[in-house]
Amino acid sequence: MVAKVLITILIILIVLVVVLYFVGKKLQKKQAEQEAQIEAVKQTVSMLVIDKKKLKLKDAGLPAMVLEQTPKYMRRAKFPIVKAKIGPQVMSLICDASIFDMVPVKKEVKATISGIYITDVKGIRGSISTTSAKKKGKFRAWIDKMQEKAGAKPVK
Description:
By secondary structure, the protein is of the alpha+beta class. It folds into two domains: about 1-40; about 40-125, CATH 2.40.50. It contains three helices and five strands. The chain has a five-stranded mixed beta barrel with strand order 1-2-3-5-4. The longest helix is centred in the first third of the chain and has 39 residues, at about 1-40. The model has no long low-confidence stretch (mean pLDDT about 90).
């Protein structure tokens, strides 16, 4: 009796892994096509970053066409939005999540954009600090404090 249940669970898991494999391959191919499209239309512009926040699409001030094309399940998610002045025009742009922390506020930068998507940022005057000081949680700060008191860590 127990063996039948375990075999059934094993068969279900094998089918699930096979389905996930093929769905993953399909999504990976789709992502590669999107990357190719982004690379094809990218351009470098200099812009003054006014503000950056993580906002929902409807609050970001993006064009209505962007909201219409976004899948319904993604409309509630928060996106990294950068408000920047490009030439005489102030625009809201979606930033790549991996470089969002590097984007300096109230500074002029040279950015690689593709439509309304920022893919890369470089500093014009000086460099951009790539180290993002991640805030410690209360528990981690308490552990560090206790280790310093106990002599396990050198005092800063």
